[in-house]
Fold each of these.
Amino acid sequence: MKTIHHPAATRGNQNHGWLKANHSFSFANFYDPHKMNFGALRVLNDDTIAAGMGFETHPHNNMEIITIPLKGDLEHKDNMGYSEVIKEGDIQVLSAGTGIEHSEYNKNTDKPINLLQLWVFPKKKGINPRYDQLSLRNLKKEDEFYQILSPNADDQGVWIHQNAWLHMGDFTNDKEHIYHLKDKSNGVYIFVIEGGALVDSKKLQKRDALGVWKTESVTIETENKSKILLIEVPMEF
């Protein structure tokens, strides 16, 4: 087993007033040659957007973009004709493919929104752009990891054009979990949203992360009142 530890304090951070951004990997004005990606996971941004503010229309291409609002609601508009609100407890996927343009704004005028946005390299370039959105409320299971994304359109959760899986866990009790990788050539990036966990003798606290690969499974000891995101992606692509 190989591991890489990314404490929350080592993330890049930028404060634009209306936007407070934390970058797990090199992004925008944050550059660290040792933190370019974890396998096919290129971006993991932890953004807080002020009330009524957001990103004006901008382009993307050949990237799988996943957005998970943690607190608050995000208004999305794109040139494919979608005008949607991604609510707290939802997950959204944009397969940018040959190219899309979209805007993202805090729907709420009285409070900030906090969201996670992931960018994953696709397994094939030049695909037709697509949009998908789903509420996670019906998938949620207390005290165990539940799947929220996969490579398969007929599987649980949303899907993307990559051999990747996302699992979320909401834990009310201290418990040991064994996560079996779907593909043994993949790695898994364990990101603690709230609370804490012990993974491979590494103590992880809020917003800490640990990347694990060259293993078929990983044991995660979760703490009470923890929320954890597992991001399984190809290490070579």
Amino acid sequence: MPPTPRPLRKLGFLTIGLFDEADPGRGHESTLEIIELGERLGFDSAWVRHRHLQYGISSPVAVLSAASQRTRRIELGTAVIPLGWENPLRLAEDLATVDLLSGGRLNPGVSVGPPMHFDQVKGALYPGTADAEDFGYGRVERLLDFVRGEPVTDFSGTEGFETFSDRVQPHSPGLGRRMWYGGGSLRSARWAGEHGMNLLTSSVVKAEDPDGPPDFAQIQLSHIQAFRAAHPDGEAARVSQGLVVIPTDSASPEQRARYEKYAAERAPRTAAPQGPARLLFAPDLVGTSEEIAGRLHAHAAFREVDEVAFALPFTFEHEDYVQILTDMATKLGPALGWRPGV
């Protein structure tokens, strides 16, 4: 097996945190237990997805605040918060608060664009201002400025018995260097680099060249290269890859069959770009750790990263995630050259 140019330095995982509408508390508790397990197994990071008006985590910052009090070492990230649902100033306050509570372990990932089903939700989300809202990169720039300590008002000082700051409080030094952008296009990758962010890549990219072959790994590689070319840190700029990876080393026969069925049902969308946006999906990687490691070592984009946040499948049971994470940490990670944190 050929070595990777960038040995795997950080192993992370990503969960959507699904729950039953009849018992949402149990689903959230399961997510926290999975994060605790990740720390015990030595994972470097745990990331949570973001879902609004669905049966998944709608408030990842609140969930990670709880996780920060039940862990001591593992980094905690969001992948990603869609800023179309957020007020950047208020979000900056929440992020800084949780970062301080975690001891500087928060890694906020964000993205832009209008909220999903915006026409149906805008009356509740932005009554009276929906048409004036900016859902572009400017929203991220505002968040970055607030997190990094830029002034938000021309007033500060004492008024009566109260003291006011001209920047977001609390301020968490270092958080600005741990802001991530979730991008799947060349434009997003370049923009994230130009603005000194870190780049989250996932199992979805835009196949922007209608005449080019739909090669996921090569497209993702081009994004990583464009990001680093634009970033002040150059080749040292941080990139994390988030493919769906399901090791089966300790899985039962029933689990293996279910995992393979899950991947097979999702496989057709990997053959060609999907929809007007020409979204191209990576195949889910299912198999033994040795088999998966071989496929990753041959993956052009994986060979350019030294951090991953492998995505857990959406619809599995808690016990399945325990098995998958355990195999990732004890089998797959070491096969990729990674060593667990302590």
